[in-house]
Specification:
58% of the residues lie in helices and 10% in strands. It has 484 residues and is an alpha+beta fold.
Length: 484
């Protein structure tokens, strides 16, 4: 079998002709943001730094409620949204395999039997006018060489997208666990609100009964009765709202668990949860990139976009393909496997991208736009991530001050209530005065419960802002401009 070789002169001519399909004037515009340019030194100056501020992967166990631990474990096992994220990751992996297959040669084998009748008007007898069978077995080989690395770049682009989808699945799990914890916090607050509204209703009923006695004694008039009845009705409405909030929180948890509403009815009243300490990890701006799944995924997508550009650019260059075809054929099965029945074909070929109506330039322009979009998304995610941490830290700092002040208000209101009870028992003050002071205490306690719930909720959101225990372990691609 004779080997065919391409002349170096022919290859040089092909490269020259390929200049007709040009990449001139096409480029990317996106510029990745440097983390060093995002200053937060003054914003974080007063926050204590400790490596322990990075959340653990099971961060919810620090909140101190075993029922919550079990609920998050159940949600991570049964929530259908996680199945969607896993399916997207699996789909991306299949694209990696498909792109890798394009880099490899293909080999096929087949066999056939052809039945042929040739007319005598075309071929004289004895061949003409007879029917014959022609069995054949053969194999084919084809391989498009990857001279410029375009197929490898396309495979690497698919690999980057797959890594991003894999990280997205981690992000989906974090989002789910955070949503379960926040819904659980809301359920706890709904129960606390129910306690206050029940106490409000009890106080309103007691006030109404006392006013009725005073009206009967001629001390008050019917105006006071109507005012007391209004207060009772309002307290009953608020109690109904609190019941609805409990039901809504339980249903929200049932949805997150991937179960029906009856599952929510089995969730007991939450314990008092422990808010995360107000602290900041060292080297936040630099290390946050490897700790937040959305940032890691965004960087993988930028990396994939650069590889896509590289792959498209190689389409402007000539390429060499090699195909071969060999087998055995005969006019009968008797001598099919004999040496004279063999045949073979070897066909090297070169492709020259000269004119395509602008398809390649359009593909490259689209790849450039994809890179710019990926960079813009990464920049937006990076800026949002750092400011998200700053916002949650500021919120927690303010809530600490508010809770301390509100606790003083609760203590003062409780002291006033106890003093009013002492005065009533001593015959100095009236029971109406005691009920009025109790209203102030209940209002203060309601506000304190709301602030406590907000503090735990914000600490959970801070955990999410700090990555929720995700750690890329240094497996984060660099963000660089697309290669020219």
């Amino acid at each position: 079998m004779r080997t065919l070789a391409l002349s170096p002169l022919l290859l040089a001519a092909a490269i020259t002709l390929a200049g007709c399909a040009s990449t001139g004037g096409l480029h990317t515009d996106g510029t990745p943001t440097d983390t060093a340019a995002l200053h937060g030194e003054r914003s974080f100056a007063k926050i204590q730094t400790t490596p322990a501020a990075w959340p653990a992967s099971d961060w919810w166990t620090k909140l101190g409620d075993v029922q919550l631990d079990a609920l998050i474990t159940e949600a991570l096992k049964n929530n259908p949204d996680l199945a969607s994220a896993d399916a997207r990751a699996k789909e991306a992996q299949s694209q990696v395999a498909a792109q890798n297959a394009k880099r490899l040669p293909t080999v096929n084998a087949a066999g056939s039997v052809a039945g042929v009748y040739l007319p005598t008007t075309a071929v004289p007898a004895p061949i003409g006018g007879s029917f014959g069978t022609y069995p054949a077995v053969y194999a084919s080989f084809s391989w498009s060489l990857d001279l410029w690395g375009g197929k490898r770049a396309a495979w690497e682009a698919a690999l980057g997208q797959a890594r991003a989808a894999e990280v997205d699945a981690h992000a989906a799990r974090l989002t789910l666990s955070v949503n379960v914890a926040r819904a659980y916090v809301q359920l706890g607050y709904a129960f606390a609100e129910k306690d206050v509204t029940d106490a409000q209703l009890k106080r309103a009923n007691a006030s109404h009964a006392l006013v009725k006695q005073r009206v009967a004694a001629g001390i008050d008039n019917r105006l006071q009765i109507k005012q007391a009845e209004t207060e009772v009705a309002s307290a009953e409405q608020q109690a109904a709202v609190a019941d609805e909030a409990i039901d809504a929180a339980r249903i929200a948890l049932a949805v997150l668990l991937g179960k029906g509403p009856d599952r929510g009815l089995d969730i007991a009243r939450p314990q008092a949860l422990q808010a995360a300490a107000l602290a900041l990890p060292p080297n936040l701006t630099a290390d946050l990139i490897g700790r937040r799944a959305d940032l890691v995924a965004a960087r993988w997508r930028v990396e994939a976009a650069t590889k896509s550009i590289a792959a498209v650019k190689t389409e402007f260059l000539p390429n060499i393909g090699l195909s071969a075809f060999a087998g055995l054929t005969s006019s009968s099965f008797d001598n099919l496997l004999s040496l004279p029945a063999r045949f073979a074909l070897v066909q090297p070929a070169i492709s020259l991208p000269i004119f395509d109506g602008g398809r390649r330039r359009s593909d490259l322009n689209n790849a450039d736009a994809g890179y710019d979009l990926a960079v813009a998304h990464y920049n937006s995610t990076l800026v949002g991530a750092i400011n998200d941490v700053a916002d949650k830290l500021a919120n927690l700092g303010s809530l600490q001050t508010q809770i301390a002040a509100q606790q003083r208000a609760v203590d003062a209101a409780r002291g006033a209530y106890e003093l009013s009870q002492q005065r009533y028992k001593a015959g100095i003050g009236s029971y109406l005065d005691t009920l009025s002071v109790q209203q102030q205490l209940l209002t203060a306690e309601q506000r304190a419960a709301a602030l406590a719930a907000q503090q735990v909720d914000t600490s959970v959101r801070l955990v999410q802002a700090l990555g929720g225990g995700f750690d890329a372990g240094g497996d984060v691609p660099p963000v660089a401009a697309a290669t020219p």
